[in-house]
Design brief:
Elements (H helix, E strand, L loop, with lengths): L1 E9 L10 E10 L2 E10 L8 H7 L3 H4 L5 H12 L3 E4 L2 H14 L5 H4 L2 E4 H8 L7 H8 L11 H15 L18 H5 L13 H15 L11
Parallel strand pairs: 1-4, 4-5
Antiparallel strand pairs: 1-2, 2-3
Helix pairs in contact: 7-8
């Protein structure tokens, strides 16, 4: 199974108000093992960054001036995520921005490019109702070191998200086939009906006598179907 842990940073909160993506980070996992095949870009948004957003991620417009625009990396990004399951914390936020960027260049929505989208925030709320379920809180809960996360950064957040997700879904490893170790499941064994020998315990002579005496007592009260030989 190919899964992509994805995170973005933006100029503000609302794509409908013209806010843009300024960083995309994606971490690939194959059969629950993170690979070295990452996708990470900073983007020139061609607009100002809201001060509140800049306080969160620390990315400045000066830093982004020589960076590519979304349309410059769109084909590579689409190819990278194509057919994969996307795992995103608070997915509606990132999906809304990604679809806005894709719509600007007449590309399909992210839902039509990926195989599916998993929102880990919704998962966490279902598992920990009434608790704080942001990424920092989940790292603390699962004992994941997030000490390097002094600011929100898409790449670090995607890496932490992978660890959080694996912790949230611990136990699924046993359901995966480890292709790198060439493990093979014999489908013939899976389809073969398993049978066990039946242990038969015969009654002792004393038990048979006791049983017959009980049937005789029933016969004295009327017809007993267990002794009727007609």
């Amino acid at each position: 199974m190919r899964q992509i842990f994805l995170d973005t940073e933006t100029t503000g909160l609302y794509p409908a108000q013209g806010h843009r993506i300024i960083e995309i980070a994606a971490i690939e996992s194959i059969n629950r093992r993170v690979t070295q095949n990452h996708f990470h870009v900073f983007l020139n948004p061609d607009r100002q960054i809201d001060p509140a957003a800049q306080e969160v991620h620390g990315i400045t417009l000066d830093f982004l001036q020589d960076k590519p625009r979304f349309e410059d990396i769109a084909s590579d990004f689409i190819e990278y995520i194509s057919g994969a399951e996307l795992i995103i914390h608070n997915a509606p936020f990132d999906v809304g921005f990604l679809n806005s960027e894709l719509g600007r260049i007449d590309k399909n929505n992210i839902e039509l490019i990926s195989s599916s989208i998993v929102d880990t925030l919704s998962m966490a709320k279902a598992m920990r109702p009434g608790q704080r379920n942001n990424l920092d809180a989940l790292c603390r809960y699962y004992g994941i070191d997030n000490s390097k996360r002094t600011l929100h950064g898409a790449l670090l957040d995607a890496e932490l998200l992978a660890e959080v997700y694996f912790s949230m879904t611990r136990g699924q490893e046993s359901l995966m086939i480890d292709l790198e170790d060439n493990s093979v499941i014999d489908q013939g064994l899976l389809n073969q009906q398993t049978t066990f020998p039946i242990l038969v315990m015969h009654a002792t002579p004393d038990e048979l006598d006791e049983h017959n005496r009980y049937l005789d007592s029933l016969s004295n009260t009327g017809k007993c179907i267990w002794t009727d030989e007609s």
